[in-house]
Structure formats: structure tokens, C-alpha cells
Amino acid sequence: xxxxxxxxxxxKTGLSLDSFKTTVVKRDExxxxxxxxxxxxxxxxxFDAALTSLAKDAPPVPGFRRSxxx
Length: 70
Fold this sequence. Notes:
Blueprint: H1 7-13, E1 21-27, E2 32-37, H2 40-57
Antiparallel strand pairs: 1-2
């Protein structure tokens, strides 16, 4: 179960990847399955940015206050 994404979505996030390798794994009539290999630092950078974005959009948890600052 993968996540569908578009070029437009990537442009919204402002994330860019410097070095990665893509391989076509399988082609169907409607889909192309890709394997994308990223260096660990690039993966961590994207993961941190996604987690920060999710945290900003998450509803508050009852009984907890959002921390101020960074």
C-alpha cells in the first residue's frame, strides 16, 4: 500500500531531493510501480519535514497545550 503523489504536491511542500535512484519494478495498464532509493540523510530530512507539517495540522490533544517556540 503506497501513497499516491503528484508533482504539484511536491511543489507545495518545498522539499527537494539531490540524489536518488529510481527503478521501474512493474508496469500495469494503469499504473507504474517504482522503487526509489534515497540516502539516509535525505530520507531523514523528508521525514522530519513531513512530521513537522503533520504536527502543525494536528488537532490539539485534550489536556495538553502546544509548546511555544520551535
